Here is the input.
Amino acid sequence: MSETAKLRIGDNEIDLPVLVGTEGNRVMDITKLYAQTSCITLDEGYANTGSTTSQITYVDGEKGILRYRGYPIEELAERCDFTETAYLLIHGELPSADELEDFRRNVRLHTLLHEGMKTIFAGFPRDAHPMAILSSVVGALAIYYEDALRPNDPDHQELAIYRLLAKMPTIAAFGYKQSIGQPFIYPENHLTYCQNFLQMMFAVPSDRYEADPDFVDALNLLLILHADHGQNCSTSTVRMVGSSTVNLYSAISAGICALWGALHGGANEACINMLEKINNDGASIGKFVDRAKDPNDPFRLMGFGHRVYKNYDPRAKIIKGVCDRLLKKHSVASPIFDLARELEEVALSDPYFIDRKLYPNVDFYSGIIYRIMGIPKQMFTVLFALGRLPGWIAHWREMHDAPGGMRIHRPRQLYTGSSQRKFVPLIKR
Ligand code: ACO
Here is the structure.
């Protein structure tokens, strides 16, 4: 017999069904709570709210486990490339050789941007943040590619998905080229996804360019590690915005905006800024750790802490290893990396961080790898967005294709404002 939870409110006692996930997690289903009791639940910041059921990604924050479609992140990072991972997330299964080739061919087919879109880039100021550019131009895809906007039409879905996967790297690289005054480098479809992106970022028409294979591998790995993470802020945004049945481009554009914030994807840029600040300040780590611990100081250690992980972030573990290898192989002397290591050591032995289970997260070391690769700081979160794109798409699709149909997302609230008041005319205020 299935388990229920009993809830008593006043004289009213009701049974709440308890659902059990694949990994044994128990969840109280409160869907009928309002109808049965006229009560809603309150959970600021959704720390304890399951907004959906999902078959895409499993995260166990206590044990430090992350799996995409059942496959451990460590195995995917070692054995897959990013497009294969994207296929897995979006379609739910690892592709056969033919399926993978077909998927890659379709992505390659759409890498160019409509020529008219170049005028959008030209209108942006030189110092525009690349995340603002990315969200604007991805939003503009709905203007230039109007032939595939219907979210419930499988053919439109498929075309919009290929276009986004193919065009986001081109948009990201064009935004960068515009900001440094270099000509756009068009995609070259004989290259792999990651080679192509680095080519569009760093090649110039006057010189030969070949991406360093170590950097191609590092980028591939970082994109895989960022590809999905359950109902995080940006993914929930994509689902929330998408639930109004708006087109995929608009939902993804909203997700990019959500990712930009320093408490989410923007933490990779904020983390390097923080390390540079500590370095310029004479490397006084203790002072910054004390500030982070001071409840009256808003300063936080960027790249530390996570809503779900109360253990070492498994992605950070992998990234740290790659970071070490790259620094050694490319003989990069980086005071910033030394500082990061020292900061991690200090923080992990401090009772404040131990008690609150604050460990380095995915953003703590990723910025250092990007730096070694020559990626400018402002582009770090853009690369996070390129990685997270398949996850956003997978969640958007899962929501639209849900067997029971999709409902618009519409949380309620506990109203704490004024009771009804008498209107005061302007002249008497
Ligand atoms: N530095 C110092 N103290 C911290 C930090 C930090 N980075 N993170 C959390 N804390 C403290 C809080 O002050 C709080 O202390 P208190 O209990 O004494 O009040 C306690 O730890 C719990 O913190 P919350 O803010 O309740 O944790 P929440 O789950 O809401 O926030 C978040 C998670 C936003 C990631 C937070 O840890 C943070 O701000 N980290 C820095 C930014 C960052 O690295 N973001 C990237 C996250 S990963 C990603 O999005 C890809």
Summary: The pocket of acetyl coenzyme *A is lined by residues 45, 263-265, 267, 292, 300-307, 356, 358, 361-363 (CB under 6 Å). The two ends are 63 Å apart (CA to CA).
